[in-house]
Amino acid sequence: MDPSPLFYQAGPALPEVSHARGVYLWDEAGREYLDGCSGAISCNLGHGRPDIRDAMLAQLDRVAFTYRTQFENAPAVALAKALVGLTHDQLQKVFFVSSGSEAVESALKLARQYFVASGEPERRRFVSLRPSYHGSTLGALGVTGYQPLEAPFTDITIGSLKVAGPDFYRHADADDTLHVERILAETRAAMEAADPDTIAAFILEPVGGASTGARMLGQAYLERIRALCDEFGCLLILDEVLTGVGRTGTWFAYQHYGVTPDLLATAKGLGAGYYPVGAVLARADIVEAVMGSGGFQHGHTYAGNPLACATALAVVEAIQREGVLSNVAARGCELEAGLEALKARFAWVGDVRGLGLLWGVELVADSDTKAPFPAEQNRFARITALAKEEGLLIYPRRTLDGVAGDHFLVTPPLTIDAADT
Ligand code: PLP
């Protein structure tokens, strides 16, 4: 291959992709890869699906793009209704975007504008977890707790009050309940010190994604954060960019816990890799307050275009039609058992955690002390490279905030079959 004019992050030269079907991809050299991480946890229905292609082609034949201020379009309305239905009408309004970062950005701005419209303009700050990942645009990056991504931009982002979430693998408290209590006490103290009346929203991922290796927050913590938001009068934004649209076995991860957000951001699996599309789901009264004060001062050109919405609608319908959520539960149990067997066999597998088909594996130098591997050993990159050599794609990271550690995600397409191993 000639040197490519493209630039991303520093890293090894990549094989050129040829084609993909189901849970497999092939490169130009003819090598086969099992997509064990759904690309970037986005190709949730696998590759090359004729039903999604047909829906996209049918929409292309009608109209690919219309601008949202000029026309209503039927796929957008149908998709919005479907998404509201998936929340059992707990969130009643939908705002479309084209990516996860845009969804988070839009949720932050909607929260802020809601308080401006409601006569509480001093509520302009956000609380988020460290570590966390909420996206790469300046607003979403501002609430992200992942030091290397933040570092060049800390002076120019909105920033947020960063607090620790529970870490059930490494905590030193006598038991999990005490740990949650301690973390919550610290969070309350930090919010009180920051003046709760200046806080617009608390944003978090209900199950951690790439920045934490699927760290679980748990029922008790999420319930108490909901209660804290209510007590302090701020909104709860759930970032379900990665966990939404079936990844954890329910349509949205919050449904495992019965902790309903005020705003929810989703993307990745909504377009399932076929088209970029995301959404913010919101409580109706929040949207009504904003719309009643002159409208939401925000929007993106491609938001809610007919092709994006027809694609996402086909994705949602496929998940419903094919009972994909039951498959997630069944395959998730098998995946958990397989990863636990790995843990029993190899001392360097420290922790296995997750839900549905979102699993994280944390690597440690010593499973007794839980000491992480030294950063310079680049274990997360090495294990990913080894897996790729064996034809398996996984999603690696090193947590750099809190206790540093290498981990990878195993997040295959939600349609994976027991035979695909
Ligand atoms: N939020 C979470 C939890 C994510 O995992 C991601 C992407 O990895 C984003 C936001 C940003 O999404 P995008 O890359 O589509 O902008």
Can you offer a commentary on this structure?
Its EC number is 2.6.1.62. The chain folds into two domains: 17-48 and 323-410, Aspartate Aminotransferase, domain 1, CATH 3.90.1150.10; 55-321, Type I PLP-dependent aspartate aminotransferase-like (Major domain) (Aspartate Aminotransferase, domain 2, 3-Layer(aba) Sandwich), CATH 3.40.640.10. 36% of the residues lie in helices and 16% in strands. The protein has 13 helices and 14 strands. The protein has helices at residues 38-41, 50-62, 74-86, 100-117, 138-142, 147-150, 176-194, 219-232, 254-257, 284-291, 306-321, 324-345, 379-389; strands at residues 17-21, 24-27, 32-34, 93-97, 125-129, 161-163, 199-204, 235-239, 263-266, 278-282, 349-355, 358-363, 395-399, 405-410. The protein has a seven-stranded mixed β-sheet with strand order 4-10-9-8-7-5-6, with helices on both faces. Helix 8 (219-232) links the parallel strand 7 (199-204) and strand 8 (235-239). The mean pLDDT is 95.
Number of helices: 13
Under the CATH scheme, the architecture of the largest domain is 3-Layer(aba) Sandwich
Query: What is the chains' assembly state?
Result: single chain
CATH names the topology of the largest domain as Aspartate Aminotransferase, domain 2
Q: Which stretches of 5+ consecutive residues score pLDDT under 50?
A: none
Pfam families: Aminotran_3
GO molecular function, one term: pyridoxal phosphate binding
Protein name: Adenosylmethionine-8-amino-7-oxononanoate aminotransferase
Family: Belongs to the class-III pyridoxal-phosphate-dependent aminotransferase family.
